[in-house]
């Protein structure tokens, strides 16, 4: 990807003369799904579930929409007690920059796909350009729980000169957290300096917001792998002196290289590998169980062809944690029809639906965790 060295999250040039030493624009990520916890979850099982909990099923088509109506926006309360309407719609060049950012991810040949739609009702990802609200996105599958008509992502500054910010926010939508919050990074902060830096313009953050986005370490069960990638597009830049360890950042800034790092590319391709066309999937035979020979974090897609129209059940069997989702193939597009997630619970995933003879369906099964390899099966009847 051709970008200058991490223009994302830097202060705009016209701010530089007045900006403080640490004048970076930072993303204020919104929460993801709650981590699976409870007495049934061992460390290994919890880690297997939580590293994938925010990620989409591979093959998902993420539809996105840009708010563009004059009435799209919200009233903001001002310091003097008055209010002002601030629009969510953005200029054409900003929208085009975000399209380019989606294309940065799409060019990797991922199994997850992106499609711009003309209606907010069709969209899973709804993007605004509200000035003064910062740049942010909800994390992964948490966007499904955002109320219809509300934004799931905001671009708060000019990304025509700052493409990495848009790439970063889409990374959150794909389920990736901030890399500088990796508990295995070894970062030791000068916390009071961090609070002071983020309380100043251009961020003006509270201590709570700074703690959530920077100082808070992610739970180890939610992070796959034990290494740190300071060049990740999901990593903030930091001015010299905010970090005490590693020691070199006491005297020099931490500046990611810009764009997707090699590890970003490897990780997203691992989670969302390229998908074969539906015609190449194998069939799940009615009333015959199929053993799932997939490892934790992997997924299998199977075709289903009902011999007659009636109610059917689809379920997994075995001591495992799985996510089931059924889609109907409608003119080449897979439309979601039902799903179930049994992760962290003492049961198996099950779907009950009326399926139509002559129609084609695809069942997707994600394996979070299995107590023993090869002892989980899926069946429909």
From TrEMBL:
Q: Which residues form a coiled coil?
A: none
Q: Which SUPFAM superfamilies match?
A: Metalloproteases ('zincins'), catalytic domain
Which SMART domains does the protein's record reference?
A: ZnMc
Residues annotated as domain Peptidase metallopeptidase: 52-232
Q: Which Pfam families match?
A: Astacin
**Protein name per UniProt:** M12 family metallopeptidase
